[in-house]
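Usage example:
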Amino acid sequence: MADKEDRMVILTDSISREKISIDPMTRKFYLELSEPSLEDNRADVDRLAAAVEKLLGPVTVPLELMRRIPGVLRDACWRVTVTVGMVAPGVWSLVDVEPGNTVRRHYGLAVDIGTTTVVVYLVDMHNGQILGKAAGYNGQVALGEDILTRIYLAGTPGGLEQLQRAVLDTLNDLIGRLAGEHGLAGREISAVAAGANSTMVHLFLGLDPSRICMAPYIPVVNNPGFIPAGQLGLKINPLAPVYCLPSVGSYVGGDVVAGVLASGLHRQPELALFVDIGTNGEIIMGNRDWLVGCAGAAGPALEGGVAECGMRAEPGAIDSISIDPGTGRVRYTTIGGAPPAGICGSGLVDCLAELLLAGIVDRAGRFRDGRREFVVVPAAESATGRDIVVTQVDINNLMRTKGAVNAALELLLESVGCELSDIDRFYAAGAFGQYLHLESAITIGLYPDLPREKMIRLGNASGEGARLVLLSNRKREEAEAIARNITYFELNANQVFMNKFIGSKFLPHTNLDYYPTVKAKLVERGLVGDGES
Amino acid sequence: MADKEDRMVILTDSISREKISIDPMTRKFYLELSEPSLEDNRADVDRLAAAVEKLLGPVTVPLELMRRIPGVLRDACWRVTVTVGMVAPGVWSLVDVEPGNTVRRHYGLAVDIGTTTVVVYLVDMHNGQILGKAAGYNGQVALGEDILTRIYLAGTPGGLEQLQRAVLDTLNDLIGRLAGEHGLAGREISAVAAGANSTMVHLFLGLDPSRICMAPYIPVVNNPGFIPAGQLGLKINPLAPVYCLPSVGSYVGGDVVAGVLASGLHRQPELALFVDIGTNGEIIMGNRDWLVGCAGAAGPALEGGVAECGMRAEPGAIDSISIDPGTGRVRYTTIGGAPPAGICGSGLVDCLAELLLAGIVDRAGRFRDGRREFVVVPAAESATGRDIVVTQVDINNLMRTKGAVNAALELLLESVGCELSDIDRFYAAGAFGQYLHLESAITIGLYPDLPREKMIRLGNASGEGARLVLLSNRKREEAEAIARNITYFELNANQVFMNKFIGSKFLPHTNLDYYPTVKAKLVERGLVGDGES
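Running the assembly step on the lines above writes:
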């Protein structure tokens, strides 16, 4: 593992690895061409294109490859491997011509461009395996921590170019590391599929994101199609198609579509819920017949830097907490076992859940004894020399986050005439989905209280969805169908949502009966009466 | 007309203007889009693409246009005109988005890139009319007069780039003149179709032409497809598709395919002959069922600079000559009525024909009195102060040219089991086809002796074929079918051709009975006996 990876926890693993038949975004064919003669004097490019056409149908040849083809064909004694890629659905164009048989050296990238972190998977497109991965902070973080700051920066002179440059530098750095580790030339990478939220797609492509955050929230593009890598400045084959998974809209991006694709919920008969809580929270609900979704700025409370002692999930971050209900004694773990320096999202959720179960906060999220904060780690033990605390303000923020998720979910359920109890599966995507402790997330009402075996962590579903699309044109079509078919509910300026949000004041839920296992725990500890709801 | 045009005669007119239904290489659509709202919050690019898709089917949107679309849509209050162009047969891509309704401002270029001259026609793609034309010398002439010199130059460091730059400068100069004269911006020109020989196509596209003149004579490409103008450096819309008419091979180029297309011989039941004599001579024979063709370095004798007093068809060039058989007195005309400075191709052909009919040269092309030259204009009358003459060497060269044409034609006829008398139509393409005097060309045996109403001058058939392809996708498909269907006979190293060539020693033909009208004239003047053949 590279140095940078050791210093942080970034989600690069995925649970679900669907078996798919490989029908990748670029294909390679080994060709043994007949040598030209006076009797067969077809032009070099036409000879090559005709051979590909026999295998695949019509193919176009970019001018820059025409210039190289005569030399490669002759140097290789007319035995070459061509790479073809999509320029539009079902339309193939030549991406490369290499001497000899290189069919087994066929590489693509599945990329997850997050607001904070970027993960690049090197995929063997011959067998579908992930050969390696590299992750790093999105270089844009140094220019603006959150999305709104970046959208603002993009509107200033040179800002958009600067932001695009930053994420490209990050990607090229990660790509260079992977290529180096696996002994391949950048030119051998012939395809990219990327899962990213709408703003990240805009900044990656150099498109103005300003209208994403202004009503009526209109992106420049939801489905950008296939863009040659050279037009973006990615240091791989310049003709490699770069495909960003389509967005539903400004607030449900290609990362979510990738996640739904990876979950497979769009192909199942049972009603399923897909939740990705990050800076934004996105909720998709549905089955093989229909899909609804919504999104909102749900997550800041969980991000590093918002809570009083919040920090990113880096070494020294407290990532799990338990509180002895009898003694009030706190146990915790930190990432990497380093001295505690702050609390990351999973620690915060644990803390609130444990505070509730220990009777230190009430169901309204207030400290029962009126204190302003709870000391998780005293100054003497901490790496910072100060108490590491969770404050009433932190709890209020977290309550708002979970309230927004509850309200959004209820809005979706009402819109399709379903109830919470109709939900058969729950998929948690994204970094929080991977690292939040399930019981704690249920205890505070962030996740629904379903049978645990029906609750599935998807891991880096955005990266996994990108890998599926990279390897299968059918999966790409499914992704496009998902984006097209999700009925999106705009929560901004939605009065029904606001009412539900304001009503979502209690832990785990206003109606405790929706959370039977949490109710049982609270009753057992005498924190609520059996008849209460 | 511009200055440069006044100083020379370049073929820019065409006789045949086939009525075609307009289905052009780029299309324009005026769209009134619904404004986005919270209820209809599709992305700008997707909204636009969906509207085009309704009219045309799927369309891809290049990244550079994505960047401009949001601004144009809003500035134009969602009423815009889109231009779409082909990137591959049947595959459409956005070329431009303009505010308001500009459907009637729809411009393309039909281009004839000759070795010596370049002609650009500005075509109104809305109604098919030619709005204007501009012509000039190919800037490559300054780098190398003939094709072989240029192919050699292309092989030297930087030579190919220099040659490409030269023809692009010529084109951009002509385009700039046309755009200026017609008050339109370069960006409004959204398509180009070009007719050119294989070497000119290679140099235009920056492709190595070296193998065109080495056995087995393999071009880099015969059918380059659609190339964005910006990749070539043409100063028009950078996304405009540039389509070079397909070549049959190294020696039958897109200019000839364009000519055959313009003639329509590929759609007629009668056997027809198509001849384009220039630096190279190309002959195509056939009908709607089959096509055969061949080519050879036939024409240098007719080009300026080869004959002793040869010159290009510029003012002062003697372009027609008659010789009084009784007195031997010469009458001539010059281009522009300027004082005679030399003889161009049509003057040379006239001269040989008149010398034969006046009995000054015999049917073997030798001066009967053994002299070495014939004075057309004495020094006192000439602009150069020297005699303007046609020498025995000039005549020998011209005999070789016509011998090569005869031999090639006979080879083609034999290959398909036809005779000269089976030919029903004759099409003369190119500059020589336009300006050679028909009777003289028949008298010396360069053209067959057919009923004159069956002999058709095509004018600038290459430019006209390009115009047809620009305006009609069906015509483009016809051009591709012509290129595919011509069975090409390689004359280089062809022994049958060499034998016939060596045997083609007589004016107008070894077998005088093939030329009944010429025979009649010769008999009438007592130059041959009635029974001779």
